[in-house]
Write a structure and sequence with these properties.
Order of helices and strands: HHHHHHHHHEHHEEHEHEH
Structural class: alpha+beta
Radius of gyration: 29 Å
Strand content: 5-15%
Low-confidence stretches: 377-382, 384-390
Strand order of the largest sheet: 2-3-1-4-5
Length: 390
């Protein structure tokens, strides 16, 4: 029961805001949002343009002013679409989406001002008072958190309240009925948006996380590391790699079974995560091998991180049902720090692997930094899996 409640609380926190989302997921969602912002901007601009002749036929006296407002809205929408094309962060996409909704609300406000704030169901101008419905409903195409969605809907609601106040119909029964309907629609929109977000989170986890340990899988780990190394390289800052291998893990599997081995892997993962910064990239390459990428980390600091990890792992006492004594564990760590702008991901991993071999060869439960000694065994002990990083 407690586990279910904790899972529900975590899911609700993830749906409420993006603070608990992984940076890589935010990048993925930003790409998704950007494509839909661009598409919606172009579609709405086209519909706005098509409506100008309709205004000229049905509202002749106000057509000139409304046409100018529509052209300004079209220019704004094209501007938003153009700017967001070159932006890749979630923050930029949020700003673009907010600008999109605000530009539509400003048009709604100014158009009603030009029309004299109409609020009668018998005139064509009543269509302008229904624009907030469309502004809310169109948000269903975006995977937004509850807080993001509520903020955008609230901006539309406040604009509509101001327009209804100016029209003198704010306290009428008809207006209350419209507000009630829009509130129901708003809740349905938020539900649809969070459902999309929840589905994206599930698909993201299945595609990028190791199902046993919950850390990055090999494909995502190397993808993030490549991009991170390139960013660090342009700033000429040190970059460290820790390659970790659980000592005598096969013996644990053979003696206690794979269930115990799975618990050991999960406990090891948690022990490493206690040492991580937000910018670090940690994942499982396969089996009992894990990699930790440390951006902007010197050799001395990388050694301190490795020491903390080994200390945390030594302190583990993994209780397994059916065993009289807890399982204890150690790990060996190979460290490589790059100060060169020419080192590739593959070269860093190869050097870390040679340092790991050196640590294993010196009795395990220790860490070794890549140095000239490691180059003496480079050709003999290179691992084929490292070529996957190319």
């Amino acid at each position: 029961m407690e586990l279910s409640y904790r899972h529900f609380k975590l899911s609700l926190q993830e749906l409420w805001s993006a603070k608990r989302h992984a940076s890589s997921f935010n990048t993925t969602r930003a790409t998704y949002l950007r494509s839909r912002i661009i598409a919606l901007s172009y579609v709405w601009a086209a519909l706005t343009l098509v409506w100008i002749p309709v205004d000229s036929l049905l509202i002749d006296s106000k057509n000139y002013s409304l046409a100018i407002l529509r052209i300004c809205l079209i220019a704004t929408l094209f501007g938003i679409a153009h700017i967001v094309r070159s932006r890749h962060s979630l923050r930029d996409c949020r700003i673009a989406l907010s600008s999109l909704i605000m530009s539509m609300n400003v048009f709604y406000l100014l158009a009603n001002h030009v029309l004299g704030y109409p609020h009668t169901v018998n005139t064509f101008t009543y269509c302008y008072t229904l624009l907030p419905f469309l502004h809310v409903i169109m948000l269903t195409i975006f995977p937004l958190s509850i807080r993001e969605s509520f903020s955008l809907i609230l901006a539309t609601a406040l604009t509509q309240i101001y327009v209804d106040f100016q029209s003198g119909s704010l306290l009428t029964v008809d207006t209350f009925a419209i507000y009630w309907l829009q509130t129901v629609v708003g809740f349905l929109v938020i539900w649809a948006q969070t459902s999309k977000l929840h589905m994206m989170l599930r698909l993201y986890r299945h595609a990028t996380l190791d199902p046993l340990t919950g850390v990055y899988n090999r494909r995502m780990l190397l993808t993030l590391a490549k991009r991170d190394i390139e960013n660090t390289r342009t700033r000429s800052r040190p970059y460290s790699v820790l390659l970790m291998d659980l000592d005598r893990f096969k013996r644990i599997n053979d003696r206690y079974g794979h269930f115990a081995g799975d618990m050991v892997l999960q406990a090891f993962t948690k022990a490493v995560q206690e040492t991580l910064r937000k910018s670090d990239i940690f994942g499982r390459y396969g089996g009992e091998e894990f990699i930790l990428f440390l951006p902007q980390c010197s050799a001395e600091n990388a050694q301190l991180v490795a020491t903390r990890i080994m200390d945390n792992v030594r302190e583990l006492k993994i209780e397994v049902e059916g065993l009289s004594e807890p399982i204890q564990l150690t790990t060996s760590v190979g460290i490589c720090t790059s100060l060169s702008t020419k080192d590739s991901l593959n070269q860093l991993l190869e050097k870390a692997d040679l340092a790991l071999y050196h640590a294993k060869n010196n009795g395990r439960d220790c860490s070794r930094m890549f140095d000239h000694y490691c180059t003496d065994v480079q050709d003999k002990h290179k691992r084929p899996w490292l070529e996957a990083a190319n």
